[in-house]
Amino acid sequence: MNRFNFRYLVVPTGIAVAYAVALRLFFGVNTWVELFSVMSITFLFLLPSISGFLFVYFSKPEKAAKITYRVFFPWIPMLIFFLITLLVSLEGWACWIMVLPIFLVASSIGGLLGGWRKTRKQGKMKVSLIVLLPLFLAPMESLIGVIPGTYEANTYIDIDAPAERVWSEVVRVRQIPAEQDSGWLTRFLGFPRPLSAELDFEGVGAKREAIFTNGLVFHETVKEYKHQQRMVFSIKAYPHEIPAATMDEHVVIGGKYFDVLEGTYELQAIGENRYRLFLSSRFQLNTTFNFYAGWWAKWIMKDIQNNILRVEKARAENAG
């Protein structure tokens, strides 16, 4: 990009970034979190849309007339906004990775609308109303309220080992060294990785702590137990036990928006000394955009479960 073009990006980029930062700070004030929440459709969709709109609207007419400019150049203020919030710890890496697709697409839509609005050459009053739109829509969204959604993540793996050997790895997961950790998605997002989990006894009412790195602990209680066949256990994570630096507040397990409720192991014979081990989880989301958050939550839970299943398979097959 040459110097001439860069100079004319400064003003629209500055306006778009300033708006995004101001709206994030406003929606982050705890005093009115019930009316203006970062975890809302209004914030996640309108902030990038309006930022993209402002970027193109305040760009030079010859630039705004180009479709490619309207679609892709609004990404510049969005990426700068991401960087600023990360540097000042307004948001965490995991949150931004998950919302990045929404922000890029929404900013492009806003850019297209901004280009269309600029070509009409009307007064700026309606633009002012667009800028204030989130302040009117957010309280309306809060009145609708959150409808909790319960979801499941189902995984399985085939293991060439006797049932007793497989089951012993299920009820007592010994220390998992870093080199055996294959959870690529959770590692990329910076989530804690599993370390160990061991029942105090085998039967209904048994308890265990599934220990993860960075202080994350799942407190589990067995609700149903059939030896070498099926084990169902409740799961509870207490946010006050998790160090603040472990997870972003918007994705912390057991917090306001995301909680894991239950896990189930099942072992089925599929051949001589060959078994299929199932691991499923049930979790709850409390957002107004569960349709999107649920997709990410399932993907993350499956990554965690597949990681544990691969460890149990390797240990069962190599034991003895």
Brief synopsis:
The protein is of the alpha+beta class.
List its traits.
alpha+beta, Alpha-D-Glucose-1,6-Bisphosphate, Chain A, domain 4, elongated
Describe this structure in words.
The chain is of the alpha+beta class and 320 residues long. It folds into 2 domains: 3-144, no CATH class; 149-318, Alpha-D-Glucose-1,6-Bisphosphate, Chain A, domain 4 (2-Layer Sandwich). The chain is 49% helix and 21% strand. It contains 10 helices and 8 strands. The protein has helices spanning 3-27, 41-57, 61-64, 67-72, 75-87, 93-120, 125-144, 163-171, 184-189, 290-318; strands at residues 149-159, 172-173, 194-198, 207-212, 217-226, 230-236, 258-271, 274-285. An 8-stranded antiparallel β-sheet has the order 1-8-7-6-5-4-3-2. A hairpin with a 2-residue loop joins strand 7 (258-271) and strand 8 (274-285). Helix 8 (163-171) crosses helix 10. The chain is elongated, with a radius of gyration of 24 Å. The mean pLDDT is 91.
Q: Reading side by side through the largest sheet, how are the strands ordered?
A: 1-8-7-6-5-4-3-2
In total, the number of strands is 8
Tell me the helix content. 40-55%
Radius of gyration: 24 Å
**Element order, helices and strands?**
HHHHHHHEHEHEEEEEEH
CATH fold descriptor of the largest domain: Alpha-D-Glucose-1,6-Bisphosphate, Chain A, domain 4
| Tally of distinct domains | 2
Structural class: alpha+beta
Helix run count:
10
Contiguous low-pLDDT stretches (5 residues minimum) are: none
Major β-sheet annotation? 8 strands, antiparallel
CATH top level label of the largest domain: Alpha Beta
Look at the structure and name the CATH superfamily of the largest domain.
Answer: START domain
Mean pLDDT: 91
Choose one word for the global shape.
elongated
Strand content: 15-25%
